[in-house]
Design a protein that fits this description.
The complex is a heterodimer of chains A (114) and B (114). Chain A is mainly beta and 114 residues long. Chain A has no helices and 12 strands. In chain A, strands 2, 5, 6, 10, 11 and 12 form a 6-stranded mixed beta sheet that branches. Chain A has a 4-stranded antiparallel beta sheet with strand order 3-9-8-7, with no helix packed on it. Chain B has 114 residues and is an all-beta fold. Helix content of chain B is 0%, strand content 54%. Chain B is built from no helices and 11 strands. In chain B, 35% of the residues are buried. The chains are: A mainly beta (114), B mainly beta (114). Chains A and B meet through β6 and β11 of A and β4, β5 and β9 of B.
Chain lengths: 114, 114
Amino acid sequence: AQTVTQSQPEMSVQEAETVTLSCTYDTSESDYYLFWYKQPPSRQMILVIRQEAYKQQNATENRFSVNFQKAAKSFSLKISDSQLGDAAMYFCAYRRVRRGKLIFGQGTELSVKP
Amino acid sequence: DAGVIQSPRHEVTEMGQEVTLRCKPISGHDYLFWYRQTMMRGLELLIYFNNNVPIDDSGMPEDRFSAKMPNASFSTLKIQPSEPRDSAVYFCASSSGLGPSEQYFGPGTRLTVT
């Protein structure tokens, strides 16, 4: 069975600084998708960034980028120039190709200090 | 588009009562998902539909839970009878296809069973 692990329950970053959130996963599949979702206090789940496993290039969305290490089964999220609005719970998620089920990690709560 | 719509946003009920949660997916999306979020178990998939047909209901906890999708624009998740351990946030999400496409989440329903 596939699993997703986020080893950092809480992280803190100073405004304008950079922070990296860790995620590892376990799968025997070779093709799959990885996602980072953000859940602010409003509890709305918002997609931050996605990565297709067959693509070697790391995904980037403005201040958000990932470090995808397929062999190590690692998928970390880097937030540059952190803003107060980035404070939220961040979930790493995995989904097999042609399957609908998202498998989530336990989440990392990020706080941003002004 | 209005996004995924869920109702009610909050529900408080007594143990033993029937609870019905409702969801309207984004127009044109052919996949609909029900997730549950608790502190103990995190975010987990309960069931998902493709073109109104249930595809994977392996996450449905027990016979007290049932889900239906009578048409492309409406789904319900019913709990009968409800128990305190059902207290959670229930999310509905929808997507177009099973490629790397995003699952768009609704705002969730916070259910409290006393």
